[in-house]
Amino acid sequence: MGQNFLKHFRKEINAIKIRFFLTAARHRKLYITTEPPTPVGSFFHQMLYMGSVRSMKVLVLTGAGISAESGIPTFRGVDGLWEGHRVEEVATPTAFDQNPELVHRFYNTRRRHLLQKDVRPNAAHIALAEYEANHDDDFLLITQNVDHLHFAAGSQNVLPMHGQLLEARCTQTDKVYPWFEDLSPNTPDPETPSRRGNLRPNVVWFGEMPYGMEKIQQAARNADLFLAIGTSAVVYPAAGIVQQTPLNCQRVEINLDTTPQSKVFTETIRGPATVEVPKFLRRVQESCKNTNEH
Ligand code: BJW
To answer: Closest by alpha carbon to 277, among 70, 4, 72, 13?
Structure first.
């Protein structure tokens, strides 16, 4: 009984926080509250009482779990091995230097799979895109996934921090090309076909710097709502983003399982992304409606 009460109480508090955030979004994205702190007395409410002028900033981080229900295997699930290799063995610059055929084969297989007709955005990708389209919030979607499913769902402000598999990059010039074919150590350069073997998948391997780190760190520092979906939180720097969000940030994790970072979140939701992401975003929306009616 005590457990249930605490769970219910935490949910209520979170709903109150979200209502406050959404008021901010509706009132021309700026608000100054004059209400005294509620009995909840959280740091968040204290901040509002002090008359802070804030805008609603939503930051979302997605991992392989969000695309699992679109048929794309995760990295560290039970079926997480590829030809007996862990991703940590193939997704490195050293592996590419030593055995480019193997690494190309790994990505060629995955690229071909991505291009199959039945690989489509699912309800979670779509819910995020719709939320972004229907709200004035400052919204950034960081994805660790190299698939194109957030784009296919219609999300606009997407930062693929680990690159994109449907792109190739020249190792000499860093020029990036849309790419839908297999790559090999013999693939001719698209601009100078006499040069061969300079293309690699435009993805971020271990030991390489992810894309957009400055933007990510700034967004984390300013986030009002941080939502992490379907990531095991073992790969850095993505796993550390939650730690960079401010104390008053509402931090929500949606995952089938607990992760090493679960304790840092203010709310953890256990269940499949296709169910829980639309449900959570509807809850945010409902809070918004209720706030407007009062
Ligand atoms: C569901 C679900 C459903 C399933 N619904 N949920 C020691 C300490 C700290 C760091 C390091 C360290 N030693 C080395 C490092 C650095 C290293 C690192 O983190 N290593 C760790 C393994 C220890 N990181 C790097 O090298 C990074 N670069 C770097 O650090 O540069 C220096 C730097 C310094 C300072 C600041 C900034 C940078 C680069 C990391 C590159 C990762 N690349 C990969 C491959 C990309 C290309 C490709 O796709 O092949 O990225 S590895 C792989 O893991 C891929 C993923 O994006 C990434 C994360 O995986 P993800 O998405 O979390 O998937 P899974 O499978 O692990 O988890 C799925 C989750 O979904 C699970 O939790 C399920 O429960 C859940 N789930 N179905 C909801 N239906």
So the answer is: 70
Domain that holds residue 111: 78-118+167-203
Chain segment 193-230, per-residue pLDDT in tens: 999 999 999 999 999 999 999 999 999 999 999 999 99
* 209 CB near ligand 1 (under 6 Å): yes
Distance 232 CA to ligand 1 centre (A): 7
Higher pLDDT, 102 or 16: 102
Say whether both 239 and 281 belong to one domain: yes
**Which residue is catalytic, options 104, 125, 148, 162?**
162
Give me the pLDDT at residue 270, please. 98
Domain count, the chain: 2
Query: Is residue 268 lining ligand 1, measured as CB closer than 6 Å?
Result: no
Cα separation, 130 vs 154, whole angstroms: 8
Largest pairwise CA distance in the chain: 73
Within a domain: 73: no
